[in-house]
Amino acid sequence: MGFVPHPNLCGLLVLPDDMRAKQWVAMAGLDPRQHQSGSSVNKKPRLSKAGNRYLRIALYMPTLSAARHDPNVRAYYHHLIQTRGLKKLQAICAVMRKLLHAIQAMLKNRQPFQSSRFYTPNEATA
What we know:
The chain is mainly alpha-helical. Helices cover 50% and strands 10% of the residues. It has five helices and two strands. Strands 1-2 form a two-stranded antiparallel sheet. Helix 1 packs across helix 4 (88-109) and helix 2 crosses helix 3 (71-82). 19% of the residues are buried.
């Protein structure tokens, strides 16, 4: 079963080949944004949401589906919630980011999605 990109994700296909995965993440607005002011204000990092909102929207439902039906993605999602202590929506956003990295690698290497390379339950926590 191959990956069929959402129509909004097809915009990724026209990006320059030399664009790195971190740049894709920033373009989607899935990169963390720090908020600090002096020594007294240190807020928790949040998504920057500075990028393309349509890309985030297009990644949301496939991420929910993958987190429910793909065993490796589901294991990563539960790892984020149980081990890292993230809330469910934070874990969804982290999976969205990792899926975007996987999509970039798939297109760069011209290989199909392999969920076993996405995450294995035996992976050490980073």
